[in-house]
Amino acid sequence: MRRNTLLRLQRLLTLVSLAALLAILATVARIAGFGLPGLDGVPPQGLVPAAFDRQVALVSGHAGFDSGAVCTDPEGNVTVTEAEVNARITGLAAERLRRAGADVLVLDEYDPRLQGLAADVLLSLHADSCIQASGYKAAYPPGSPIAATNQRLLACLDEHYAPVTGLNLHPNTVTHDMTGYHAFNRINPYTPAAILEMGFLGGDQDLLVGRPRVVARGVADSILCFLQQTGPGS
User: Fold this and answer.
1) Residue 101 and residue 214 share a domain
2) Which residues of 155-171 are buried (b: 16+ CB within 10 A; e: fewer)?
3) Are both 22 and 82 inside the same structural domain?
4) Contact, 190 vs 146, CB < 8 A?
5) pTM of the model
6) Residues 12 and 75 in one domain
7) At what angle do helices 82-100 and 212-229 cross, to 10 degrees?
8) Half-sphere exposure of 225 toward its Cβ, with a 13 Å CA cutoff?
9) 107 and 183 share a domain?
10) Structural domain of 20
């Protein structure tokens, strides 16, 4: 009787130990970026050494200021606003970058912390109008003393954002509001920076609203590409 009890206890302890080991392995796998993709096909984000302790600033376009572009149905009812789309994607991108090891600062459109901001990179996230067009576009301050560094950031967007989201570059609609973006004049001039129009709320709404994690991955992958190509303070 006592022997049977001991055998049952041994089996129970073995099962508990095995379950604990599997839980530890699963946690390590998640940290390393291994694991099953979600329903949207986006894999989990793992640690990226180049991102560790680097400061990334993300501006959630129009946050704390206005709604940005507003889309309506034929009856005039509001269906989606740019600000809410920007906020959702910015939050998801920040989450991925933090899991990669970066120190992420999420800012409002006219956040007072923009003044003199020194960071490894700043990216302002916006969505374009409700017209039936498709594509992304980006711009950096034309008079920047670190133009070559900013060009690397745009190159990383072309290299990663485009294939992840499936969107093509839409360069012919870059406006003065983008090249003359107000935050460019507020931050430290040696902070690499760009503004990204992530897609059109009209033609790309299925992506921007329906698959925000895909867009966030494109944003995060682009920034991680940039951090891997540049050292701290470069």
Assistant:
1) yes
2) ebbeebbbebbebeebe
3) no
4) yes
5) 0.83
6) no
7) 50
8) 19
9) yes
10) 1-32
Considering the domain architecture, whether residues 142 and 176 belong to the same structural domain is answered as yes
CA atoms of 219 and 198, how far apart (whole Å) = 9
Taking the C-alpha atoms of residue 154 and residue 201, their distance in angstroms, rounded to an integer, is 21
- How many independent structural domains does the chain possess? 2
Buried b (16+ CB within 10 A) or exposed e, 114-123: beebebbbbb
pLDDT in tens, 27-81: 334 444 444 455 556 889 999 999 999 999 999 999 999 999 999 999 999 999 9
User: By the 8 A CB rule, do 167 and 204 touch?
Assistant: yes
Q: Any idea how long the chain is?
A: 234
User: Any residues with CB less than 8 A from the CB of 108 and at least 6 apart, and which?
Assistant: 59, 60, 63, 64, 65
128 CB-near residues (< 8 Å, 6+ apart): 69, 137, 173, 197, 198, 199, 200, 201
Mean pLDDT, rounded, for 199-227: 98
Residues 1, 106: one domain? no
In a 3-state reduction of DSSP, which class is residue 230? coil
**Measured between alpha carbons, how far is 119 from 117 in angstroms, rounded to an integer?**
6
- Chain centroid to CA 35: 20
Q: Which tokens is 143 given?
A: 């008079």
Answer for the pair 99, 117: CB distance below 8 angstroms, yes or no.
Answer: no
